Batch of 2 targets.
Target 1
Amino acid sequence: MNAVNRSIDTKTYQQRDAAHHLHPFTDYKALAREGTRVITRAEGCHIWDSEGNKILDGMAGLWCVNVGYGRRELADAAYKQLMELPFYNSFFKTTNAPAADLAAKLAEVTPAGLNHAFFANSGSEANDTIVRMVRHYWNLKGQPDRKTIISREYGYHGSTMASVSLCGMSAMHGQGDLPLPGFHHIDPPYQFRDGANMTPEEFGLAAARKLEAAIHHIGPDRVAAFIAEPIQGAGGVIIPPMSYFPEIQRICREYGILLIADEVICGFGRTGRWFGCDSFDIQPDLMPIAKGLSSGYQPISAVMVGERVATTFIEEGGEFYHGFTYSGHPVAAAVALENIAIIQREKLVERVAGDIGPYFAEKLRSLEDIPIVGEVRTMGLIGAVELVKDRKNRTFFERLGATGTICRDHCFANNLVMRAVRDTMVVSPPLIISHDEVDELVAKARAAITATARDVG
Ligand code: PLP
């Protein structure tokens, strides 16, 4: 199992890559200077590079490989479907069995009331689809002035023009004159930064009421929807207090605006329930899903659509002029179905809630004895270790992000993948991670954070 594919020469691939491959989210000069790690294979919770290093993947790829690497069942499902029907589209009143089965399965496992699936290929495409659905919905309802979609600072919803406009990442907006008109951002429920003097209950209500203030500022008749990740993942694993979403739900209902729960990271067991909506008691009108839907084995996403929007579209909408060549791709759908079957068969959601999640929480919290650790946050198998200059006063480092980068590099040098968001180290391992692997992850994180403290001290 440990064999390394020696036919891959690291230098050749680094040079080829630097010469021809424009990577996502990458500084190209730095890549050419420093080279990349060439990943050659993976098994369970580990990946291997072309130098033979075995690396613990604390990020499950990009928050997506929920069932772990090397699943023969998923390869078999893809092979079988490729031989039977490798492609056909789902435009113009055509379907295929895996797409229909997957839509039905998703209606069963997602929160009550979400009974229709619109398929796409990525989280970004799902959120772009949602922006079009929201506008189309309000036009059909005779309220075309309802255009503004409210989202949050540090929210991440994708990289296409509409989905990046939903994002609350200023660096992303700086490139490309974004956001587009019709997008408004409010503060996130980031208690470590903004709520030191409040109880979680008080802070959750105060943070939710920023939505109400924004609605009044924009004008209640001009607001179309509010979008939020149950836990803000790429923004630094910001976990809201339990009082936050019930108040958000109340506000959305009171002003009639659509509530969108972006489950691209939280879905499929990550939080210890099937969906983050189940963990926080959210009843969304629209719900994008991706990543854990196929555990990253195939590019597939979906928008789960609730009755309010679905009925309007079906009864009043006429043709919906939107879709992708690969919407409802039979191979991707077959793999997603088998992936969901694995999650159910192996009771992975129950495992996260009752066994490995609490163990992970306890172990990660043990890092709080390191002086630069300001706070450890976890829910299920998603976690954050926030690094600060002064824990007592919650003072961040001056050059926000520099310390996180140092720590991330220490992790990587020590064969652990952890990601840095500003100075917060985030972690989101496969749901099959063993107790020993959690110990390995936390021991390596401790070594990296301790080395970082020495570097910045
Ligand atoms: N929504 C959330 C919450 C995400 O975390 C991401 C990606 O990380 C996306 C949407 C975009 O998904 P994709 O990268 O598949 O376009």
Note: The pocket of pyridoxal-5'-phosphate is lined by residues 122-124, 127, 156-158, 229, 233-234, 262, 264-265, 290 (CB under 6 Å).
Target 2
Amino acid sequence: MATNRTFTMIKPDAVEKGHIGGILSMITEAGFRIVSLKLTQLTVADAQEFYAVHAERPFYGELVSFMSRGPIVAAILEKDNAVEDFRKLIGATNPANAEEGTIRKKYATSMGENAVHGSDSDENAAIEGAFHFAGREQF
Ligand code: DAT
Ligand code: MG
């Protein structure tokens, strides 16, 4: 059964370009409620742990250095069918394949620097949310 929360990050590329406000607007206009929100930065060790599932992939080193190079916005979001609906809102991993109206179509520049993260399952949404936010930071 689908739960109603997902986890997102506005990645360093989008923060550097000043797109925090634009992306948060797209998220709230799509009907997501912000449960938790902060500007933070991943250490190299944080990024390695967060993306441990990709450790054997050729792009892992590049991904870890990109994700730790500057501030990110981390957020927990709430909506019916949150995980699936948020994946639709962000669009394909490769922005060249992202549909019109998606966050990655508007803000991502490449496969590696694709502006936003979205959890891929309810289980990962819970793990990723807890990685960034204590219970008292979840509203
Ligand atoms: P998503 O972020 O859409 O869930 P993913 O979980 O497959 O995609 O990969 C995590 C991130 O790793 C992705 O947002 C960007 C990067 N990445 C994935 N495949 C890549 C590739 N072939 N080359 C470079 N970066 C890649
Ligand atoms: Mg993923």
Note: The radius of gyration is 14 Å.
